[in-house]
Each structure stands twice: as C-alpha cells, then as structure tokens.
Amino acid sequence: MLTVRAPATSANLGSGFDVFGVALDRPADVVSVERADETTIEVSGAGAQYIPEDPAKNTAGVVAAELDAPARIRIDKGVRPSSGLGSSAASAAAAAVALDALYERGLTGEELVRVAAEGEAAVSGEAHADNVAPSILGGFTVVRDDGVLSIDAEVPLVACLPEIVVSTRDARGVVPDSTSMDDVVHTVGSAATLTAGMQRDDPTLVGRGMDEHVVTPARAALIDGYDDVVAAAEAAGATGVTVSGAGPAILAACYPARQRAVASAMVEAFENAGVDARAYRSSVGSGAVIVEK
Ligand SMILES: Nc1ncnc2c1ncn2[C@@H]1O[C@H](COP(=O)(O)OP(=O)(O)O)[C@@H](O)[C@H]1O
Ligand SMILES: N[C@@H](CCOP(=O)(O)O)C(=O)O
Question: What is the pLDDT of residue 166?
C-alpha cells in the first residue's frame, strides 16, 4: 500500500482567477492505493457522504483512468467538499502522485498537474488546474495554458470555512462573460502586485494584490455574511481578504503577529451572521508527499 497526503489549496487569490493558487498547511486529504484489476474507491472523513464512490464520478477515479493505473483507492477526506479549499483537487492531486509512484511512471510535476486537472474537469465541468497545481507542487503557483510556475513563499494566511455549501460548478455559473477595459487594467495591476508580494514574502503587497472587481463581487453574493467577515478581518489587521476559490471559504493575508486575531475575528463575524465557521491558520505550504510506501 502506498499513501500520499495532499493539502488543501486556495485558488484565485482575488486577482488570479483560474491562474493563481496557493498550498495551505492544513487541512489535507490522505489517499492510499494498492494495485488491483479494476479501480474501486472508498471514501471516509469530512463530507464523505456527499462524495461519489463511482470511479467515473470521483476525481481520484478519473485520475486512475487517465493514468491507466487501476487500483483499490481509499480516500480519507480532511478537506470538506464544496468548501473553496480545493477538496476535489486534493483527492485528484494525491491520487496522481500515489498512482504515479505505485506504477513507477516517473511523470514530472507538470505532467502530474495535467493528469490531476482532468479529474477536476469531471466534477467542475472545466479542467482548471489552479487547485491541483499547488496541491502537487506546493507554494504559490501560476497556471497558464503552456505551463506552471511555482514560487516558494512565506506569507501568513487565514482560510475561514463557514458551514455553507457552494459548489464550484454553480459558482462558475455566476462569473460574468465579459468585463470593461478599466477592470482588466485594475486586475492586471493587482495580479502583478500580488506576485511581487509572494516573491518578496510581503503580506502588504499580497493583501493589496487580492483586490479584484469582476469575479469576486459576483461570488461574494453567494456567501452569507461575506461583507461583515471582510470588515472584521481588516479591522483585526488583515492586509487583504477575498473569496477562497469559488467559496464559501474566505481567505485573508496578514502579518504573523495578527494571524490569531484575524482568525478569531472572521469566525466571530460569521457567527454573528448566524453561520458556524472554523478558521485554518496557515502559511504558504508544501505540496503532496508520500507518507507511507
Ligand atoms: N474525491 C473527491 N473529493 C471531493 N469532492 C469530490 C471528489 N470526487 C468528486 N467530488 C465532487 O466534487 C464536488 C466538490 O468539488 P468542488 O465543488 O470543486 O469543491 P471544492 O470547492 O471544495 O473543491 C462535489 O460535488 C463532490 O461530490
Ligand atoms: N478557479 C476555480 C477555483 C475553484 O476552487 P474551489 O476550491 O472552489 O474548487 C474557480 O474559481 O472556479
């Protein structure tokens, strides 16, 4: 049996819709694989009752088919589905890394990202790789049609997950079809600022670079309490706040000394809006690792 841990991720970071992603320290999915004649899947852990065990409908099963690597796959979910924390991607990433090792395929990190993205396509309708890239490679990642960049960064983050479900498929449906040139210019400025911030480990630049006026407001409307949580996080010292992935999780950047206060403020603001929530304090984390061979 071979076991891989793949972390939760936060995609978009505001200005990098379908492009930026970041690995979080926690939570994570743990996936174990054994060779078999045909693929079977068992799921346990957070939200397991909502996750299909049919290999054609589970991101890990789609990855096994893509790699032509049949296996008995056991998934222990740490990342709750429909969270905005790359739940489906964490299983896809872990399965890609585990099956590549099990069958000694020797794929590169970038090849593994492409395979895992096919798993994502099966559930979200499109092969966006901005969650699987950081879950496999770690760090802050930039996904383009022609490749993936990964940058190591040391920036404190808080991911606050409310007890609300927003499916990525639905949240992709509210993204506007077009935007103005002013918004394009603003988004490019933010994205460049955020990238420089990651390169310099600068929470102020990262936070400022999250600002975006097209996708974020459309998705924020799906999250009860969003404006109050943003205001509370900023008052507690967050340098920037945005929707994590497609939501409902909300991501904040901050300085280390403010991380605990930002986390508490976000949870409290959700609770004041009548929504239970929990906060994960993290830095920019590592990618998937084999934990047992
Ligand atoms: N291994 C898996 N882990 C989590 N969700 C999965 C998995 N395989 C398929 N799914 C489906 O994907 C959807 C959740 O994915 P998504 O909406 O992208 O959540 P998240 O925003 O957390 O990534 C659910 O409908 C779930 O049933
Ligand atoms: N770029 C995608 C990211 C979805 O992330 P998830 O964690 O919500 O699955 C999008 O914004 O749709």
Answer: 86
What's the N-to-C CA distance of the chain in angstroms?
6
Residue type, 45: G
CB distance 102 to 39 below 8 Å: no
Tens of pLDDT, residue by residue over 154-193, are: 999 999 999 998 888 889 999 999 999 999 999 999 999 9
Distance 169 CA to ligand 1 centre (A): 10
Domain 157-282 sits in CATH 3.30.70.890: yes
Name the helix (H) or strand (E) containing 141: strand 140-144
CA 104 – ligand 2 centroid, Å: 30
Note the pLDDT of residue 292.
Answer: 82
Q: What is the pLDDT of residue 129?
A: 95
- Ligand 1: does its nearest atom lie under 6 Å from the Cβ of 12? no
This prediction's pTM = 0.96
The domain spans of the chain are 2-151+285-292, 157-282
The CATH number of the domain covering residues in 2-151+285-292: 3.30.230.10
